[in-house]
Amino acid sequence: MSMVADESQALRELADELGREGVICSCLEDADEIGHTVPDLVLLDADSHAGIRALSRTAIQDLHAPTIILGRLETICGLNGHLFSDDFVVKPYDLRELVLRIRCLMGRSAERNGTELITLGDLSIDTARYEVTIAGRTVVLTFREYELLKFLARNPGRVFTRDALLNHVWGRDYLGGDRTVDVHVRRLRSKIEAFGHSFIETVRNVGYRFHQND
Fold first, then answer.
1. Tens digit of pLDDT for each residue in 140-192?
2. Contacts of residue 178, Cβ cutoff 8 Å, sequence gap at least 6
3. What pLDDT shows up at residue 209?
4. Which domains are seen in the chain, by residue range?
5. What does pTM read for this prediction?
6. Higher-pLDDT residue of 101, 38
7. Does 196 score more than 60 pLDDT?
8. Which of 53, 101, 142, 165 suits 181 as a labelling partner, its CA being 20 to 30 A distant?
């Protein structure tokens, strides 16, 4: 796992605590250093200058690694959901909760080792390469957006409630609310609809389903 934040005693102590929990963590002061690593997960400290800079880097997205934001509540609220992350943990936090969230995301990212190719109309999801294309054009997604699209695409036409999507995509141990699903669907739509397609359909008062374009 890689952690991006300004170098500090608190950062070193957190890395040591995570190590004792079995989470091996390397501390980076600049997002550009991530390009020289292959992390299973990225933890960004939004209260540091280095963490904030990293949040806006496309290099973070290109890793296709799950990302967690760590920060004070006012800092995270100030981000307004415009940054690329899959989860967040508010300071002050319980180390056990942080480790639980890290393990949950890292466990789900292991699924990327499959070789299945999902093709529905112009949409293609290469799970071996962790790539999504629409009509041959690449779509850059965060880890959670990718997992959500992949799950819906594997079940075309089937309607899922928000709670069901939380369980299948985020995991039963996820502590967030079902509005998380709405936020990620909105972000996902903004990316795939830019290609002139509409794959995710809202079923009023129920949830969402994948609609295959002809």
1. 998 889 999 999 998 888 899 998 898 888 876 666 677 889 999 999 999 98
2. 162, 163, 166
3. 92
4. 2-110 (3.40.50.2300), 114-210 (1.10.10.10)
5. 0.51
6. 101
7. yes
8. 53
* Sheet order of strands, 131-134 included: 117-120, 123-126, 131-134, 137-139
- For 71-103, give one letter per residue: b (16+ CB within 10 A) or e: beeebbeeeeeebbbbbbbeeeeeeeebbbbbb
- The closest of 166, 175, 146 to 207, measured between CA atoms, is 166
